Amino acid sequence: MKKIKIGGVPEHFNYPWYLALKDKKFQQQGINLRWVDFLGGTGEMNNALREKEIDLAVILTEGIVKDIIQGNQSKIVQVFVKSPLVWGIHVAKNSPYQTISDLRGAEAAISRYGSGSHLMAFINAQNQHWDIQKDLKFKVIENLDGALKGLPNGEGDYFMWEKFTTKPYVDKGIFRRVGNCPTPWPCFVIAARDELIENDPEAIKTILELINAETKQFKEIPAIDHKLADRYQQKVEDIQEWLSLTQWSSKNLTSNELEEVQKSLLDLNLIDKKVAPERILFNF
Q1: Where in the cell is it found (predicted)?
Q2: Domain count, the chain
């Protein structure tokens, strides 16, 4: 039995992995796939790939592209979710900030440098035509729990996280959402360490085939909206909206999509060069 570790955030996007693992679909193909939750998100997963703590990651596109360019010995093997990720921009309930424009020069709470919450703060600033050098400040709060504790106590002024994951905390009155910021590209990809690609590409292919079969019929599962709402403590209507917006994929990033990501990262001075697609993408 081949042992492979995969990392991801414990959110509704990854429920298809939970179902496939629960049904022992990978084991049936001779693969002992072990799932590892990463509450710290993409920055934490990038580090785990570098340190060989995991072999695969379901990870934010912009975060892994940036880290591969900066030396992470991994490649993107497939897009997992091709629709954009809708990032909610949140402040504490009693915050004086009322609109996105009010946040110019305020302190963004981020899980860690290189994380999605860090990179998307740059995308939001660019969308708002802010001065990247003067108008962005950061406070590291580690994860969503850190933001829930920190923002009401003045640790960071605003926090960007996936809109539907944070919706229960908006409903409870801990956060107030002042706007949204969708990613301008497919949001989640599956990355594999180069060592695994070189040593066992067939295992990766098998894993991708199995999860693609799961996502292909995911929306047809009876009462899937209620199951997701129960598991992730969401309102059924919010899950229904999320399902209507979300599209999974069985293909890799195109060269044009990768070019758009690299151009944005370069424009924001988050990378110092663009690289050839084969440095970042691996196609079977």
Answers
A1: Periplasm
A2: 2
The span from the CA of 167 to the CA of 35, in Å, is 25
pLDDT digits (tens, 9 = 90+) for 67-98: 999 999 999 999 999 999 999 999 999 999 99
User: What CATH number should be reported for the domain holding residue 255?
Assistant: 3.40.190.10
Q: How far apart are CA 164 and CA 238, in angstroms?
A: 7
Measured CA to CA, the distance from residue 253 to residue 80 in angstroms comes to 10
Q: Compute and round to an integer the Cα radius of gyration of the chain.
A: 19
Look at residues 190, 196, 186 and name the one whose alpha carbon lies nearest to residue 208.
190
* Side-chain half-sphere exposure of 137, counting CA atoms within 13 A: 11
What element of type H or E holds 159? strand 158-162
Cβ(68)–Cβ(45) below 8 Å? no
Does 60 reside within a domain? yes
71 within domain boundaries = yes
User: What is the Cα–Cα distance from 55 to 65, expressed in whole angstroms?
Assistant: 16
Q: Are 283 and 201 in contact (CB under 8 A)?
A: no
Q: What is the pLDDT of residues 28-68, one digit of tens each?
A: 999 999 999 998 889 899 999 999 999 999 999 999 999 99
Report the distance separating Cα 159 and Cα 100, nearest Å: 11
Final residue in a domain of this structure, among 158, 182, 206? 182
Is residue 133 within 8 A of residue 115, CB to CB? The reply is no
Q: Which residues contact 125 (CB under 8 A, 6 or more apart)?
A: 132, 135, 136
- How far is the C-alpha of 220 from the C-alpha of 134, rounded, in Å? 48
Whole-model pTM: value is 0.90
